[in-house]
Amino acid sequence: MLIYGLFATYYVMTVNLVYFSIMTFSFRQILTIFRRAAFSKYNTLSGSELVPPVSLLVPAFNEEITVIENVKCLLTLNYPAYEVIVINDGSKDNTLGVLRDEFELMPLPDPDIRQTIDCQPITAVYHNPKYPHLYVIDKPNGGKADSLNAGINLSHYPLISSIDADSLLEKDALIRMARMYMENPEETVAIGGDVRIANGCVIENGAVKEVSLPRKIWPMFQATEYLKAFLGGRIGWSSINGLIIVSGAFGLFRKDYVIAVGGYRGGYPGEDMNIIIKLHRYMLENKLKYRIAFCPEAVCWTQAPDTYRILSNQRKRWGRGNLKNMIENYDMAFNPKYKVMGLLTMPYNIIFEALNPYFKITGLLALIGYTLLDMTHWRVLAVFWLINFLSGYVLSIGALLLEELSFKRFNKLSDLCKLLMFSAFKFFGYAQLGGLWRIQGHIQFLRNNNSWGTMTRQSWQDKGEAAAKAAKPAKSA
Amino acid sequence: MMSNLTALHNQTERSGLYAGIEQRVRETAKEVNGVLFIYSEGGPSYVASQVRGILESEPGLQSEVWGGDEPGSVAVLLPGLTLDAVHYQGLRLKQQLQERISDYRPRMALASFSTQKEIMPQLLSQMEEKAKQNYSDDIYIFTKADLLLVKSRILIVEGDPAVREFLQIRLNMQGYETMMADNGITALDLITDWKPDLVLTELNLYGIDGLPYIHQIQQVSGGEMPKIVVLTEQRVEKTISLCFENGVDDYITKPFSPVELDARIRRCIQ
Amino acid sequence: MAGQHLGLAIAFIYVCLGLIGIGMLLLFYMKIRYLRIQRKTKEYLRKHQDYFLFLQAHLGDAEELPLPPGKLGDLERRVIQQRVTEWIEQFKGDLQQKLIALCYNAGFVREDLKLLDSLFYGRRIAAAYRLGGMRAAEAVPRLLEMLKHQKYSPLSIVLARSIAKSAEQEQQLRDMLIHLLRHGKPIHHLAADILMETRLDASRLLLQLLKEDHEDLVKVALAAMRGQEGLEEAPALGRFAFALDRRETTA
User: Fold this and answer.
1) Which residue among B73, B241, B270, C159 is the one 20 to 30 A from A403 at the CA level?
2) With contacts defined as CB-CB under 8 Å, which chain A residues touch C13?
């Protein structure tokens, strides 16, 4: 028992050391990121004919309450040439109706749709010449991935960007990404944006006017979590080209490569991670030079789940999707052919992410058992827990430092204190819950291995509820 | 009775002040003359002497200072100074007065007259009135535009505060009445309520922007459509031609030449 | 055996504690410093509002624009410089020229030129960015030198833009393009966008680039003329001529 406990302790230390090394890569990058953001004027670029046009794909399922506001926000981005394609994924509510009324849309008699990727047949495409850059696709329900594929089939431009219907893009977000793309257009196949939590922020005219921390505890925990994952993790991973996920909430892709890998995979959640893994695989197998980049200065604000039920469902879904992706692509792990991806990212995600809760919980149980046998060994248990807590806290502080070195979006001293506090509280319950949810997600996966459609629809429903419940008060404030 | 008497007294004293300024102008025999009024309600009575001191500390500057009819009210004549020079002296005065007198918030108006003939009591009185009613913290620049009775209205719609402020100052000085909006929604409301003659607008705005915004302007303004001049970063050929097709009168891209902008606005309004 | 492991674990704990302490100190130091600068900046912006109004009112008629009366601190100067640069970026023609002259006369350009020699890379880049904002032609040879030694990164773009904004000779723009494109990345569109920031006669410049033997330079010129239509198509003469024509009228 002790031996296993010790093993778990070393495991925790290794996880955090690995994470720490990834974070040092982030630190190496952060000043460049700060400078490139501070010393670029986006306004000239945002009117330039030389910027590649982008198709924004916005899947919508039962979003009648929020969809108008979000589309309006997307129609006012600072970007020279782009189109917004909303895909109504067989909503059961009046999503299509409210869109048609608000923008006076009429069905296009002869929409030009290419069947480059398989998806549910498109019922109709709606358009209004007064809003030349807006298209609405209506199609039977097929899940988020299927909706994105339908959007790709209609899209007119060489770059596509997937955006969640319940998130809010900053006006400059897309042009910042495009600038990054233009710096290396041939090799860049995908760029991820930074996702931040909008709960608590003041929102006006479809833009975050005043940044503030969430007032409720669940979003607050997530705020610290997102900071750590995006600034501490993704900047570092992207600097060694080992990024495994571009958030589904906001990412930019080269359409030709997305089509080359067969588009998005339906049936399971985690299609955002899946597409990135497929892109890595495709580029490496074809020996093409490429990068999958992360652009932390391009910000997308999202309403985080603020109740236990919705949050736990979201995390279980992530756990489920994650496991599916790992099982599907286990062959990449430890395969030198796949370079950083095969030798670092995949092993890290399998051993240290997917299996993390099992090691931690069994380790804890083993040490508790050991202590129960002989109470004088409580110190070992304390050490295990302290290592868990302190090394995790170091990483949280590192993430806050990264934020402070670059974006400084939280303007009050009290915000800093609050972030520090919640980063610590996280280890008293929240982190453990996170592990539990992940395990529950894995169990769900193993049990419903072949229930495809229902699962996707379930996930959409969760999101619709989350948006309806969480978004309303804050967005109208 | 009593109040009538004081009023009369005030008036004579004031016209005495204006006459004094007029006379001094003739004596110095400079064609161009700067005039500056400073006022602060119940302000300290020693302001005039402070002003004198500050102006005399600048070598080579000719000036004359009168204490007005109320304590805290001061008139300054700066012979030979053009508007920018008067304005600069105004800045200096304000800054130094504020350093010397605590909690001092002067209301100021200044002007430069290009001929002696222009300086007349009615005009000076109008100007002093402007100073007294200048409740903003800014220095008021009194120009010929203040004498216009009918002004064309221009709505400035611009997200960038630096450009917005610049356009407002420039257009005000040219005799237009202006209002400002920093987003598309407010702009549409103002077009409905205030009915401007011309809308000078950026295309990238919060709330609503681009072509839908132009359409909406047409819709809300009903029959009396304002002229629309677009001043924007947006340089994409197709957008420009779509704008012209949809009733935009002129399209100017940033960076812009303010002189050229003036000319284009004038052409549109006439 | 367990004791040995425990020792290691406890050492690990101490290291973590140390890092947490240092991190917290740094965090608070940085936050407080940043908030102070923010507050001061706001204060100065308010203090000089009269001066900013003065500048905007007399851009057209003043012979030479002065600095505000009184003594100015370092941050205060920086705040004014930033505001003036904002206008320089938005205007062209005489008024822009006057603001540029103000930056020279006030010593802003000289100060930033000096900063190009700084030991800190961050300061050099910041100075280069500001010099571009002030259209400081004097700085161009130095900036070209920096770009030449810069490894390709987003900051190469910052340098290149500064050069394009400030350059007063066509040769300098050409050198800028050569340095920028030497990394072999197909960034012709971005390079064209940078090039078009120039104050020089763009149509003449583009025609010259078209005659070059250097393939990349020709591509940049074509991109500048034809926007997003792609480089593979045969040059459409109509549009080609139209693009030139348009640049002439707007230049």
Assistant:
1) C159
2) 383, 386-387, 390
